[in-house]
Amino acid sequence: MSSEPSKPVRIGLLGHGTVGAAFAELLAERADAVEAATGRRPEISGVLTRSQGDFGAILENSDLIVELMGGTDPARGFVLDAMRASRPVVTANKQLLAQHGDELFDVARAAGVQLRFEAAVAAVIPIVRTIQESFGVTEIAKVFGIVNGTTNFILSEMAATGAGYDEVLARAQELGYAEADPSDDVSGADAAAKMAILARLAFHTPVSLAEVSYQGIEAIQPDDLAYAKELGLSLKLLGVAERRNGGISVRVFPCFLYAGHPLAPIEGPFNAVMVEAPAITEVTMSGPGAGGLQTASAVLGDVVSILAGEAPVHETRTELPIVADVTSSFYLYLEVADQPGVLATVATVLGDHDISVKSVVQRGADDDARLVMVVHECLESRFAAAVVALGELDEMRAAPRSIHVIEEEF
Ligand SMILES: NC(=O)c1ccc[n+]([C@@H]2O[C@H](COP(=O)([O-])OP(=O)(O)OC[C@H]3O[C@@H](n4cnc5c(N)ncnc54)[C@H](OP(=O)(O)O)[C@@H]3O)[C@@H](O)[C@H]2O)c1
Q: pLDDT category, 221, cuts 50, 70, 90?
């Protein structure tokens, strides 16, 4: 008895760059495995780039669309058209999801098709799937982590070598870890887009990119890293999405971590994401956050999930307000006149703002002294006011510098 060959699943591929080309190659290589797992053999039915292919013709000849072009335009129109034409879509496009998430999920829901995007956040680390499926009904308290490999590479190198930001950025560009225009990565904007997506999934609430506050790594000085080492701290660019005071806070900022924190040992161009909830305690996943093959692998995983008929489209259920002013611990770097009583003056200003000091390192340099301290958790607005007051002291020799700290020691 001969069995009928299954009908192939025709995949329309939008974009054939780093990820698109790797996906086409991986799909050909793993076609047997995909067929064995899903009963359908995948084939590429058309490829769109700037110089080849026609979107309308590709859509007509496809059962599923994989969008790996990047950017919001024309990707947004293509993804919406595909879903309205009842084609499920897989995309790796974080900007598209972070800026147009509401519209995309509404159309996916109305059309009853799947929109999958595992590769849009931390590439191959299965954080989207984990939050949507494994923790789909868990009341997640916090999702946070290192979601940008470029900045993690730069900060790791600065800490290891003592070199300055510009020198290490140039090295990252030579090695292919940073783009020729690195602004999206180093400003924190790329991480902010990923955190908007994770916050939406974790808290079942609409979160747009505009609601994520972010700060980059451009102002970090080698001094900060050297002193922090003495305080037992290592520096990461963190994305944090958490429930706070009946709302949520979604932010990206450079942050010191104590040794022993699960994210402290993540070095180089790697990503790591932690999820916390009473029902799960905490889970940490780490791995490469970029790369053609690694990202393509996440895209292929989404294609297989769709073919296997798994998981409904993401649903937005509640509207949680964004809480702007939250508490944090901070590192504070002060250059002051090297004269008696300065430390007491600084302590008084901090005390006046209800801020208490956890640890201090003091060093003399010529006529000036450096006071480097970690202060206990306080409202960010109160800390900002204290920094302004410190900056106005006659004894201050340079503008104070501050960086967030996660005080929790594991
Ligand atoms: N690279 C990574 O490691 C990585 C990791 C995670 C997520 N992603 C995401 O994956 C997506 C693709 O990234 P990539 O690195 O593969 O980008 P890429 O190398 O720049 O490739 C983009 C592809 O899309 C095509 N394209 C762009 N604009 C187009 C337009 N207006 N019309 C037709 N074709 C167009 C390009 O065509 P031409 O060939 O004609 O220029 C190219 O083939 C992005 O959303 C990115 O954020 C990438």
A: very high
